[in-house]
Amino acid sequence: MTDKCGTLGSVPRSGADARRRLQQAALELYQERGFDRTTSAEIAARAGVNERTFFRHFPDKREVLFDGEADLRAALMQSVAEAPGELPALDALLHAFRRAAQILEDNRAFREPRLRIIAATPTLRERELAKAAMLTDALAEALRQRGVADRLAGLAAATGWATFHHAAQDWIDDPSRSLEKHLLQAFDDLRGLAS
Amino acid sequence: MTDKCGTLGSVPRSGADARRRLQQAALELYQERGFDRTTSAEIAARAGVNERTFFRHFPDKREVLFDGEADLRAALMQSVAEAPGELPALDALLHAFRRAAQILEDNRAFREPRLRIIAATPTLRERELAKAAMLTDALAEALRQRGVADRLAGLAAATGWATFHHAAQDWIDDPSRSLEKHLLQAFDDLRGLAS
DNA sequence: CCGCATTTGTCAGTCACTGGCGCTACGGGC
DNA sequence: GCCCGTAGCGCCAGTGACTGACAAATGCGG
């Protein structure tokens, strides 16, 4: 019934490949019709697989857009761990965020359509916030492993992430300056606020 | 077919009353069976109304638990506006949070079961994060109306809220000290981090 | 060539949520 | 007392996200 081999010929059905096609199809459809006007069946159809397969690769419709987040988290945690030994908490975070900024700037074109879709869809913003919360938890844990006092780690991670996020927002609104510039300014602003 | 007037007799069907019964029923069922093991039909049945009525009062299953949030937001914004004139941004926020802390401490028993349910349910945590994001946006706006620089308002609101939330978390873990104590300590910690 | 594991297709089912329609109870104007 | 507009509700039918179970296919080592 489905054009399993009809449209694309004998595609390498390696599993990871279907996953990529599903991500691509979802991204396209979310752009064309908007998130809530595209059904999971449509995504699966464009990817050339069954609807059920979609939910085997992703737990729900939203998660398709949040796939690289685990990598970002890992990179951030590693950067925090590798930060110069006696740097205080916020500086260690800034060190990690500068690395993350590099990554974000490199594949900006790649992430931009995704950001627009998320920004336009409340339910996707919710999911994004949840991912951010998981990320700050991970950052707090990384700070603790650095020796940051248990009580301070969570607070430092939360405020640090808020500052990073704020910088990223500024960068989106004004891409003429680099993310790193925005980041440094945001951390300066933070210290100014708390003085 | 339904026991519309059968079980409870001629209840005052004033609309706002059905809403309260729905909230109560949902809270009970979420406690008894957990959020995802209770259906909207069950909530409606216990409240003595039709399932459709549930969705007339609340846009979705989660929102039942987040009803007072608008009040909290209004109270916070008013407190920020009423804060002594030349207080810097973070201090104005602290002023508002101390008022909010009073409110939270007063109906702690009222909110505690709700917190447990939310903490135990990922999808409810997502919604809570979304509400918090709306709240920080409102705080940023309140700060701007106070004359806080446009660029700083968002950052101050985000870090301030993170600090408040952190204090509230500490308070839940250690209720022997007052929320206000935790709040003051958290803001001290924040200034310590940024020094 | 044969099991064996992984991936997928198919089907049936649950449940959140929506639109539409008709009923009914209530409050105000006459 | 009567009419009428409105608001809240019950009811029904429908869409769409997601799940569990089972069978078919695909590819790989023996």
From TrEMBL, chains A, B:
Q: PROSITE patterns recorded for this chain?
A: HTH_TETR_2
Q: Which residues bind DNA?
A: 39-58
- Going by the entry's taxonomy, the superkingdom of the source organism is recorded as Bacteria
Q: Which Pfam families match?
A: TetR_C_14, TetR_N
Ranges for the HTH tetR-type domain? 16-76
Q: What's the protein name?
A: TetR family transcriptional regulator
| Cross-referenced Gene3D superfamilies | Tetracycline Repressor, domain 2
Which keywords belong to this entry? DNA-binding, Transcription, Transcription regulation
- Asked whether the keyword Plastid is assigned, the reply is no
The protein's matches in InterPro entries, at most eight in alphabetical order, are given as: Homeodomain-like_sf (IPR009057), HTH-type_TetR-like_transc_reg (IPR050109), HTH_TetR (IPR001647), MftR_C (IPR041347)
Please give the coiled-coil regions recorded for this protein: none
**Would the keyword rRNA-binding be found if you checked this record's keyword annotation?**
no
What organism does the UniProt record list as the source? Winogradskya humida
